[in-house]
Amino acid sequence: MSGTPTFKRLPRAVREQQMLDAAVRVFSRHGFHAASMDEIAEVAGISKPMVYAYLGTKEELFVACLHREGTRMMEAIAGAAAPELDADERLWRGLRAFFGFVGAHRDGWAVLYRQARGSQPFAGELAAMRSRLVEVVAGMLDHALRAEGVEVSETELEVVAYALVGASESLADWLADHPEADPGKTATRMMNVAWLGAGQLLRGVTWHPPQE
Amino acid sequence: MSGTPTFKRLPRAVREQQMLDAAVRVFSRHGFHAASMDEIAEVAGISKPMVYAYLGTKEELFVACLHREGTRMMEAIAGAAAPELDADERLWRGLRAFFGFVGAHRDGWAVLYRQARGSQPFAGELAAMRSRLVEVVAGMLDHALRAEGVEVSETELEVVAYALVGASESLADWLADHPEADPGKTATRMMNVAWLGAGQLLRGVTWHPPQE
DNA sequence: GAGCATACCTACTCGTGCGTAAGGTTACGC
DNA sequence: GCGTAACCTTACGCACGAGTAGGTATGCTC
Is the Cβ–Cβ distance between A166 and B167 less than 8 Å? Predict the structure, then answer.
């Protein structure tokens, strides 16, 4: 009396992914504290003890979400920005990959950016990831600077990278709240600000993505 | 048997400020959910029912914190960036005022930026304030653009403003985590990124604050 | 088709923390 | 010097949600 045999008794790996999907959704909506394990279990279509059996406590579950989404994002970016390209080309590809990821994983982004920040236990986890991102950007700038023969202190570089990462995160947030917005266009806008600066923009100078 | 008659029975207005101070500290440390009313009362040197009598429920208390800190910040910025100045001068003064505020009110900043973002009930409150900030920046850019005879769409403008605000917030966060850092220097660095862009910086061009 | 492991459930315990009821104490008006 | 109102307390009720105990069903192996 049914085509689909009422989804039951799935293998562990599958259920774990379903749980993580559910957890990311619920955490992104209510935040870590306000989210309840009961709701996560319900959204996953499973009962609570299963969640504990597979993914452990609430904190461990959240860290698992953080890791999955974070890894996905870092891979998306790293895969796009090859080290042998010029600085502007690398920045552009990195930005495009980043905004593409956020556009496709809005819930994951919300967990990473809006939730992990506040609660103490995970601030470290997130800060580490963010640091890697900042270091990549700083390294990129440093590389380009050396090629240009310009000398800048290390903190100086780090701060600039921080600002760029922050601006990108902010725009990513804007993107997450505007489902109709185009990730590619958002990346272009970010590139304009980052590469040219407000001063150039005010003179009517704009940057355009290269034809492929 | 004492110079100070063991602080008791203070007028309402004073106690309310003490409570708000305590609440901002506790909220900034633990976040909204993890913070307990008992601890806030203890830090304020008062018992819990007093907090309820004066400032209402936990949510109302948090909103009160949000309002006080937010208003303080907006006033600091608005007071510094007079509309009759040139765009770069306005931006510079605004940035300096902003980073000055964060440097002096790190706890308040943590509440505004790190805590209010996640929990649903206050996302709106904060977003409204942030919107006003973005509008101010966008208006500034628009003004300068018209003077220059350049035409840009409204969303374009909003997005650029968003990126600038985001970059500033990110650096403010960095500042909050580096107590030894100088707010003025941080503002200068932000100005370099915002006004010149990475492209100019790579060519060795830098911006310096005007002598006063 | 007996046995065993794995998937899965219902129904509970227990701590924590919000919000309050009811009562004590100090200052101030008259 | 006495009422009264504002300030302040201790001690509790109550709900919600994390984590668990113990039991049931299903597929897989021989």
Answer: yes
